[in-house]
């Protein structure tokens, strides 16, 4: 699995939003994008990460940026998660983990000694032209938003 780095063109993708609409990463050209990947809606680390982006969102918006959260969960799960924590940004459905694979964040994980494939928590800061300016793999939930903000 190859990892993306600063200077790389961010892989474009098409995804379904938490509202059931279809978007492409390229729709956001002209804005900066914080694209973050998390394993599962409404789990402790993922909630910490999402709420941190929520709490930093006004500052992120001031910097001409949007946040897109990506996980393998479906639309209904995303809607519940978004409503429960009042998340002001879009969550994207990646049920076939194609986006995660394109960004090199779908990989082997282990929990309680059991190995399985899943999303490696990470984020990417993408500039107005669609280039990656910062890539963080295996980021800690509480450090993701502050690190992404620093990269903006």
Cα(first) to Cα(last) distance is: 26 Å
The CATH homologous superfamily corresponds to: Glutaredoxin
CATH class: Alpha Beta
Determine the number of helices (DSSP H or I, runs of at least 4 residues).
4
Percentage of residues in DSSP E strands = 25-35%
Mean pLDDT: 96
Overall body shape: globular
Using the coordinates shown, work out and report the CATH topology: Glutaredoxin
What percentage of residues falls in helices of 4 or more residues? Answer: 25-40%
Radius of gyration: 14 Å
What is the makeup of the main sheet? 7 strands, mixed
Largest sheet, spatial ordering of strands? 2-1-5-4-3-8-9
The CATH architecture name reads 3-Layer(aba) Sandwich
Tell me the number of strands: 9
Mind explaining what this structure looks like?
There is one protein chain. By secondary structure, this protein is α+β, with helices and mostly antiparallel strands. The chain has one domain: Glutaredoxin. The protein has four helices and nine strands, in the order E-E-E-H-E-H-E-H-E-E-E-E-H. The strands form two sheets. Strands 2-1-5-4-3-8-9 form a seven-stranded mixed β-sheet, with helices on one face. A two-stranded antiparallel ribbon has the order 6-7. Helix 1 (44-62) runs parallel beside helix 4 (141-151). The longest helix has 19 residues, at 44-62. The chain is globular, with a radius of gyration of 14 Å. 33% of the residues are buried. The model has no long low-confidence stretch (mean pLDDT 96).
